[in-house]
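Predict both folds.
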Amino acid sequence: MNLLEWQNYCSHYFTSNGGISDKTHIGLNIYQESIKANHLNALNISFPVIKALLGEKNFKFLCRDYLNYYSWDCESINEFGAGLGTFIRSAKQLATLEYLEEVANVEWLIETLSRNVATTFSSSSGGMEIWLAHQKEDIPEIKLDDFITSYWRFIKNNDGLKIEQIDSAST
């Protein structure tokens, strides 16, 4: 049973059995707020560059909006940030920040990479370059052609994460 089904079951149970007491209501509110806090914390951990670009206050607003938008049929908190890039694209307030969706997708890609995996990513709005500029480690030299689509290879192994820009002919 996923979270949404469980919440619907509980809601039906309590309403069909004469409602809930004030004490139970308080407990359920604490439980719901705890779930929200855990999901917001997961976004905080998974999207540090988005947070840096938007600032603390705006990032909190984005996360709260995403939390309200999010479909709660997901069974794992580990999947919670998967749709943030799409959500950002649909947010009217962020329409002028075209690269933000791409930065979110880069962060999610890296968050979900397993050990010993390689994948590629194409960047057309400069999101990859912006993400790289926010990294503390040494980063590869970036070739910018006015943000013409660039391609990147991510390789994660026991030595860590390696990122390299690749020629479009290699993809």
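Second protein follows, with its predicted structure tokens after the sequence.
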Amino acid sequence: MPDASPDIRHSSFPPACAGGDIRHSRPRAARSEAELPWVTCLCPTYGRFERLRDVLACFLAQTYPHKRLLILNDAPEPLTLKKTPGVRVINGPDPYPTLGEKRQSLLEAAQAPVVAHWDDDDLYLPWHLTRCVAALWGARGAKCVKARGAWFMVGRKGEGGGLQVRGIRHNVFEGQMVFFRERALAHGGYPPWHSGQARHLLGKFHRAGELYKIPDSMDLTSYVYRWGQGVTHISALKNREESGRVFRHANRDFGDGRPLTPADLTPYWSAVLKGAHKTLSKDDYGRFEENLCPSVSEAAR
């Protein structure tokens, strides 16, 4: 598998990524699928078994062809995984002092030229990598890309009240960053903090003039930010020392020795479609539904 990508900084932005069906689009500069860069999705976790089943399923549903998922677990209980092409689990011997150090370890372990955040408590729609890599290739001088907005989901599958998607929120949402690995390392990578480390790296790209914010195209919004996926949420914690201790111990759900398997995403995608129907215009919703419905059908099989 290649560890280097062609010079793609000046390639033109594919029209399909401005709207319409982008599930199988590719940058114009790539004459064949083989020329697309490899992307490693970096997923730090602390034994969050059920959440990992969700993000594993999201990864496997991605339409982008050259992808890997690297999961780093530093909980006392190791995670196991049945042989799944492109997916690797690393069980650390001891907990990392901070989330930033765990992210940095993942960044250094990745071999692909492009890396993507793959948070263990959020969701990624099937065209996420395709859209982000196309933007990274197409935006002149860009070394990091992220969309301006994300779907905002509350509730948990199987609980009273169910899942609700409350429209699109505009925020930093660093969980959808996709960037060149070597450039991130040149910026110093992630600081050894528990909270705010991803925003810090995003700021480095921004100050260097290397951050491209993908223009709003609501029907292509591909990241689902989930609130309330643990006993506490990292963004609600203020004190960094407290964050490390509380977050690690409160956010664990063990698999009792079961191997990781992909979850059924149908309840999530159905909730996203309901939220999109309330949020998007008729034309935008039609395009969004056309993109997502094949994945709903596939997940239901």
